[in-house]
């Protein structure tokens, strides 16, 4: 037969189109899309029965276990995170490689990435993954710093296909000075590396945390009190100024603050290359969810993340930002910790929170599985404007901004990997279609979900990754797992403006 697999009777939805058509897959690639493929040409047929067919999700913000444990003992290995991803319609995740601080020299970052991919190559991966580089510390002193970093970034791109870095403006041990943020942006601009920014003013966070502790305000809820929306707003504004100074495109991750959104939108209106990611939890949960519930006086700790969940009224600003384009992408910031179980000898990360002090609660919650279903559901509930918008911000834009389009994030015959989701038909009910979210559904290694019991209008029926069905009506197809590390190219959405606030130019532009 001509095609290994044919998806029939689906309604194809991409970031730009919505139309009924059949898809022919050969090997790992999409080979054809046309209004009718004769079943005689198909090795195997998947009948979508009128359901929506989308590209697989790209979740470009996922934390998993690494050789360098920057975030402590997270619950999921890369294998477990990819398993959870495909169970929720995501077929590419971009996780993080942390710097091994014992390494130095021009290939130090490349070596950190290789150590990470070596670890993951021993795991069964259900979908592909890429890596961003987390910069925890810059090598060298004075002006040497930026030149060493320049070399390291050039090499990590050449050696490993890593085209993005993440820098932090908060967290002890990670917080970068403005001076080093400028160094990072200087070297990123030169190498076409996407600069991802965690924007919170770490000094305000530290000051407030100390003061709240002094006053005995220790419960999970006070984590949010210690870092209100202006803390993110200030850092966002400062980072935009630093980026303007360096003429460097930037991307704010996990944006949750109305002040930050206003700053981002103003910068975009002024023509700056400023992009932003938000996460489903900021649109769907609030600081009320960090209070204690169900007779468990520490349950609010499950919903602690940074930036924190915001007051109820902020949610509408998040939906508005998704709909009006202020947010280019949605990522999950999946960062799961075991709340209570000690299964598989795994460590309960919450045990270390001496007397429930919020300072010690591990930051993060699971979300790699639920991102796609929750946002599909948001279209059904008219919170998100259309299914095309859903695909744009969850699949296509992440692939473009992180340099893996059109291999990922689209359905382009001849170019795109056959990473495809077939959703349940909207007008029928199927025995195997979930009606509410339960932790069992998510296939992650974590022992809770913030969305337990939440009603859901759709769920991926078939997840196809590299041409193979890896998830089918609630069941993982373990033997079809073929995930690999993917090298990425440079971003197709960001390039410098060549506009400067003064006569200063980087030396490398003068050559
Ligand atoms: N925020 C979290 O909540 N978890 C992981 C890291 C981060 O920035
Ligand atoms: Zn972050
Ligand atoms: Zn994160």
Give a summary of the structure in a few sentences.
The chain has helices at residues 78-87, 108-120, 144-160, 178-191, 202-214, 221-225, 229-246, 258-269, 280-284, 315-324, 371-380, 387-401, 507-510, and strands at residues 3-13, 18-26, 29-34, 42-47, 52-55, 57-59, 90-98, 128-134, 164-168, 194-198, 250-252, 274-278, 329-330, 420-423, 460-465, 468-472, 475-476. The protein is of the alpha/beta class and 511 residues long.
What do you see in this structure?
The protein has 13 helices and 17 strands. With 511 residues, the chain is of the alpha/beta class. The strands form two sheets. Strands 1, 2, 3, 4, 5, 14, 15, 16 and 17 form a nine-stranded mixed sheet that branches. It has an eight-stranded parallel sheet with strand order 6-7-8-9-10-11-12-13. The chain is globular, with a radius of gyration of 22 Å. The mean pLDDT is 96. Bound molecules: dihydropyrimidine-2,4(1H,3H)-dione (DUC) and zinc ion (ZN) (2 copies). One zinc ion (ZN) binds at residues 61, 63, 333, 335.
